[in-house]
Amino acid sequence: MKYKQELIKSMNYLATKPNTIFLGQSVAFSGNAIYNTLVGVPNKKKLEMPVFEDAQMGMSLGLAMNGFVPITCYPRFDFLILAFNQLVNHLDKVRKMSLNEIKPRVIIRTSIGSKKPLDGGPQHTQDYTKIFKDTLTEVKVVFLNSPKQILPAFKKAYLDKNSYSYLFIENGDFYNQK
Amino acid sequence: MITKKELIDFELDIKKFYESGKIKAPIHLSGNNESELIKIFKKIHKNDWVFSTWRNHYHALLKGIPQDWLKKEIIAGRSMGINSIKQKFFSSAIVAGIIPIALGVAKAMKLKNKNNTNKVWVFIGDMTFETGMFHECYKYAKNHKLPLKFVVEDNGLSTNTPTNKVWIKKSKKPKDVIYYKYKRKFPHHGTGGWVLF
User: Fold this and answer.
1) pLDDT tens digits for chain B (197 residues)?
2) A108 vs chain B: nearest CA distance in angstroms?
């Protein structure tokens, strides 16, 4: 189960940075797979959010505009769709809109819902990677396929000299398979 | 602070440029609300953030953005999205789009400094006030005691759709939301005249 361990290691790495903050639904309270990767993150660095996905994405941009590096978590890809507006119209366009003055570094985490042992069905297991890759122009989209890729990917996002935002896509089934 | 006459003259100057075909992008001119805004901006400090909309020229000037810089941005076609970190000013052309971003800035201010006295001011129209996004973010800001202040500028219209007509009636304004009514001087966008581009 290296996949999950590498995610835990990556979150622990990000948690050592003074300017990071972890937000989303079920970051401080149990309820999804992503929560289980935040076990090493101190509670004072977690912001449990209400269910208002689009507002959460906008808030993440606002936090980044004021010096934070938000790790903003969406437990399932299906739920990230609800934040597509802020992601596409603001986070992805703000550099262009500000002539490169506003360069928010937001790290987005989402996961394709697992199908085994329980299949979540059509509203909990979709993979929209291609649509997001085709739509986003500035936010980097990375599918986390193998365990060895995970920690370097999150390190790169945190240290990116150009301060780009990243969308990391996990697969819930890999938590048990890889 | 910039005067009422200077605000009016600025927009008339932009109107002239637009009508000569030199601005190849939509403009949304302000007018008839100078006195209300001057009064509100007396409470807004240099280190406060201001979030505005596609109709942002007056807000930008009152926040202290230099007229020359603003004019260049407008002529370059960026009227709908005037942004400056230096001036702590952000605007967007997506309805209600600024609200959660402003909420994030306010949250960051409080997280960084519990004794923070700076504020985040959000200017929205009467149709945006009716959106779910406003109500979610207003509730979050109020309950978390964030330094976020809303100003509703009610001209009764969203583009040309009457807010009263589509919602039947408008929601009650909370006491801590600044609210004023005005009649718009210019059309939603453009100047009302025929322009050859």
Assistant:
1) 899 999 999 999 999 999 999 999 999 999 999 999 999 999 999 999 999 999 999 999 999 999 999 999 999 999 999 999 999 999 999 999 999 999 999 999 999 998 999 999 999 999 999 999 999 999 999 999 999 999 999 999 999 999 999 999 999 999 999 999 999 999 999 998 888 88
2) 15
- Among A21, A89, A102, whose Cβ lies nearest the Cβ of B85? A102
**Cβ within 8 Å, pair A21-B103:** no
> Looking at beta carbons, which residues of chain A come within 8 Å of B100?
52, 54-59, 61-62, 86
Q: For residue A115, give every residue at least 6 positions away whose Cβ sits within 8 Å of its Cβ, in sequence order, or none.
A: A125, A173
Q: CB distance B104–A89 less than 8 Å?
A: no
Chain A residues with CB-CB distance to B101 below 8 A: 58-59, 61-62, 65, 86, 90
Tokens of A173: 């089934």
- Cis peptide bond upstream of A152, omega within 30: no
Cross-chain residue pair B84–A59, CB shorter than 8 Å: no
Helix axes A2-15, A147-159, angle to 10 degrees: 20
Nearest to B105 among A52, A65, A94 (CB): A65
Apex B172 CA angle, B166 and B178, nearest 5: 110
CA angle A37, A43, A49 (to 5 degrees): 80
Residues 111-140 of A with CB under 8 A from B: none
Q: For residues B57 and B91, is the Cβ–Cβ distance under 8 A?
A: no
Provide the token pair at B91.
């605007």
Asked if the Cβ–Cβ distance from B103 to A101 is below 8 Å, we say: no
The ipTM value here is 0.97
The Cα B131–Cα A122 span in angstroms is 29
